[in-house]
Amino acid sequence: MANGVIRYWAAAKAAAGVAEEPYAAATVAEALENACAVRDAEFRRVLARSSFLLDGAPVGTRPHAAVPLTEGGVLEVLPPFAGG
């Protein structure tokens, strides 16, 4: 198990109600499930549409359960947004 921070951006921040929070989890899937456990269905919908960066690198299409978290790492949640 690793400890780090989840950072939420734009709609994810609004749905989470916080800009960031700590994680204590082994994988991206576990950290996101822990975050979902204390929030409503809208938060889960935002996550389903989001992209994720782990320590600045895209998680991409890898299964979240197969992506290990790092000690002191940063998992960023980036919902889709318009603009450029």
Q: Care to describe what's here?
A:
The protein has 84 residues and is of the alpha+beta class. The protein is 30% helix and 29% strand. The protein has helices spanning 10-16, 28-36, 41-49, and strands at residues 2-8, 20-25, 51-54, 57-58, 74-78. Strands 2-1-5-3-4 form a five-stranded mixed sheet. Strand 3 (51-54) and strand 4 (57-58) form a beta hairpin.
Structure described in brief:
By secondary structure, the protein is of the alpha+beta class.
State the separation between the terminal residues, measured CA to CA.
37 Å
Mean pLDDT: 95
Strand proportion: 25-35%
Helix/strand order, N-terminal first: EHEHHEEE
Binned, the helix content reads: 25-40%
Biggest β-sheet strands, sense, barrel: 5 strands, mixed
User: How are the strands of the largest sheet arranged?
Assistant: 2-1-5-3-4
Rounded to the nearest angstrom, the radius of gyration is 12 Å
Oligomer: single chain
